Amino acid sequence: MTRKTTPKTASKTTSKTTPKTASKTTSKTTSKTTRKAPGKTPSRTTRKTASKTKVTTSTERILAIDVGGTGLKAAIIDADGKMKTERLRVATPHPCTPDQLVDALAKLVAPLVEKEPPTLMSIGFPGVVRNNRILTAPHFGVEGWHDIPLADSLAQRLGGLPVRMINDAEMQGFAAIEGHGLEFVLTLGTGAGTAMFRDGELMPHLELAHHPVSKKGVAYDEYIGDAAREKAGNKRWNRRVEKVIGILGALVNYDKLWIGGGNAARLTIDLPANTATVSNDAGIEGGARLWHPRSVRETRQLPEANERTGRFK
Asked: Are 258 and 240 in contact (CB under 8 A)?
């Protein structure tokens, strides 16, 4: 917009400038301030970031951890999800008890904590998470994995860091979504994860991965998980994913579908116009959004996030 001046100021300016010069100056200024930079059409397979609200501070250092069925990943990110360190990865121990997982994570993040001491911690876990506690852990077994305070246990090992933990597909979704309408996330990894967002806010979690998807009662995890891909082959697995996309479209009627996880890169099918894939790094980058106001307010997963408050304003 061109800034308006008061008549008194304009008069003084005009009297000191020749009409020709004033005309050129006004023309250049107007052209420079009102011209819009040409926009680029984002690729279908690249998530948009321009429409996301940026945080005004970069002083926070967030230790973001992505717990997977086959791999544990971690990095230090800033308030906008940008990595401040390299992403580290180790294999997930199997069998794995809660104590063994805490030990493995503490060892994984030790060099990151030493290099960039974090102020906050975010964790994405493959299961049902509520109030920072694990209710189910299908990739680690049933025995000993109910109502586990994994987040607090790890936080104490790291000096009492403030910590928030949610489902891993939800954390990945935070890095992918545009914040408009109904957006759905499907992750393809060891199993199949799902998350749903409305206008940028995370909705209550549904474990669709354990919902039957075939006549034989096979659930999403067994139908399009990594073990199913290795057994059926990539071509047949791709057809299964295509079928699941159709089912989710009819069930959810989403405006946008985001497909993430390690196996998203193995897709060879033509995706619908309202569907895109996201980088596997999103599982780390989404950790920043857990500390934004209202991001997880409506899910009732974290009591302190239920109100319109948050670490960042």
From this structure: no
Q: CATH code at 283?
A: 3.30.420.40
312 lies in some domain: yes
Structural domain includes residue 302: yes
Contact yes or no for 122/64 (Cβ under 8 A): yes
CB atoms within 10 A of CB 94: 11
Report yes or no on 309 lying in a domain: yes
Domain range spanning residue 233?
Answer: 59-313
User: What does the DSSP 8-state code read for residue 206?
Assistant: -
Average pLDDT value for residue range 191-208: 92
Long-range (24+ apart) CB contacts under 8 A made by 216-221 are: 220/191, 220/192, 220/194, 220/244, 221/138, 221/191, 221/192
Rounded-to-integer distance, Cα 15 and Cα 22, Å: 10
Q: For the segment 247-284, what is each residue's pLDDT rounded down to a tens digit? A: 999 999 999 999 999 999 999 999 999 999 999 899 99
Map residue 276 onto helix, strand or coil: strand
Cα torsion 188, 222, 247, 167: sign:
negative
Residue 197: what are its φ and ψ, rounded to 5°? -130, 145
- Looking at the structure of the chain, the number of domains it has is 1
d(C-alpha 80, C-alpha 118), whole Å? 15
Rounded to two decimals, the pTM is 0.77
